[in-house]
């Protein structure tokens, strides 16, 4: 096998050591399970001089999930999150999303921090060096154009495909970050800045996170809402091991015949995880076919799928919408 | 570039070596230690052929840095037979024809071994779920599931008899 490019590995045991290592090596990258970044390194997409491993930082290896709040450390393994009894009971969409990621062996390796920061994906990008080279590369690396949208005027449409983000978005997710300028907490909604046409964001598929140089994700947190029931669904080309063609997280609160709360979020559709705007306007009324028709309109307006995977963008958007409507209908039917 | 002394338990024995930071566990096993039982089948994380147990848990050695197993326990396909006798899971793959070309077999066996240690009596769905990171182009999977079921029965039989 080809050797990897030369890099050094630092294996800190505490957050303080991690931050110090990051400060000493500004061009370093973090590595958790390596199930994303090592693939990119093997394909010559990234060549960081230093990798800082997050797995040995035990203070980031904890999960707390009570009736009010869930707090998950960045070094927690996906399998640990998926199997956590309190997460399954209280935040089912989060546990189901974790359980749907890649395959079982990947979930023993992949971390929550790595999933939140997962690189955006595109069939013209997730390829070997010679494949990309034969195609004159593209904007996301060193090329001059976007092969998905040649008239994109410098915008990359690579798709955000992490499954945890939409599930956390349902519960008003936030991220604790630490970096050279200290610690801060950012709403997950504001953390993902990948371009989508109606929000005027400055980011795109290349620049998809509002993370500052040297910053580290420490924890992801979210707050419970009494009575909210949630679930996660996803379609992928191979059901047992694959990135999402589209993933949807939904949460519903029912008050008799009235829809009291509705939240829907997506992955695999845009260069960002999308929390659907406008669902609040469908609440406070009886749930009906009109609710689902209105949901369909919101999806059509806000999901912006391009042909960054094997399926056409229109298929991705349509299937995401169908999944969302089915999931909301199921949650409504099962909600008390 | 940094190199380091690496100490870990490999197939039940303490192992010390020198490893460059940028070396994958897969390459360390196959190319340094000439333990070629663990296979490589893709350019990163897509086939499961390289599965080994780290502290008893299935991991992909093609996406594991060798230096990260410091102090841990690594088990490969070479660890399973004892004094010329196949382990239950190997016998299962042999007798139930869970292996055709055999290239995916070490990865399947290690993933299945990880499952059987956690859950001695897995259902078909649990077997399917646990082997979801592995790909086989020959068998059509049915025979692989039968191989794991065989091993489960044999292991539980042996335990009951003991
Ligand atoms: C075959 C295959 C299928 C997959 N399918 C899916 C899927 O269905 N859904 C899905 O979501 N993912 C999928 N993945 C990707 C991956 O397994 C998971 O997303 C996993 O959670 C990534 O975590 P990691 O720790 O392995 O990430 P790493 O590769 O270690 O890191 C990923 C990125 O996050 C950064 N990072 C890591 N930790 C931190 C931190 N604490 N702070 C800041 N940045 C950090 C890294 O620098 C890197 O850029 C798949 C991967 C493979 C190989
Ligand atoms: S969307 Fe365009 S620029 Fe972005 S990775 Fe794909 S081809 Fe490259
Ligand atoms: S060699 Fe294919 S997953 Fe490791
Ligand atoms: S036996 Fe040939 S790939 Fe599985």
Q: Which structural class fits the helix and strand makeup of chain B? A: alpha+beta
Bound molecules: flavin-adenine dinucleotide, iron/sulfur cluster, FE2/S2 (inorganic) cluster
Radius of gyration of chain B: 16 Å
Enumerate the strands of the largest sheet of chain B in spatial order, edge to edge or round the barrel. 2-1-5-3-4
- Give the strand tally of chain A: 13
CATH class of the largest domain in chain B: Alpha Beta
Spatial shape of chain A: globular
User: What is the average per-residue confidence, as pLDDT of chain B, rounded to a whole number?
Assistant: 95
The CATH topology assignment of the largest domain in chain B is Ubiquitin-like (UB roll)
Given as residue ranges, the uncertain stretches of chain B (5+ residues, pLDDT < 50) are none
Topology:
The complex is a heterodimer of chains A (336) and B (162).
Chain A: E1 8-10, H1 15-24, E2 29-31, H2 37-42, E3 50-53, E4 63-65, E5 69-73, H3 78-83, H4 85-90, H5 92-99, H6 104-109, H7 112-116, H8 129-134, H9 164-170, E6 174-179, E7 182-187, H10 188-191, E8 216-223, E9 229-235, E10 246-255, E11 258-267, E12 274-275, E13 285-286, H11 289-302, H12 313-334
Parallel strand pairs in A: 1-3, 2-3
Antiparallel strand pairs in A: 4-5, 5-8, 6-7, 6-8, 9-10, 10-11, 11-12, 11-13
Helix pairs in contact in A: 11-12
Chain B: E1 3-10, E2 13-20, H1 25-32, E3 51-54, E4 57-60, E5 73-75, H2 88-95, H3 105-118, H4 124-130, H5 142-161
Helix pairs in contact in B: 2-5
The structure holds flavin-adenine dinucleotide (FAD), iron/sulfur cluster and FE2/S2 (inorganic) cluster (FES) (2 copies).
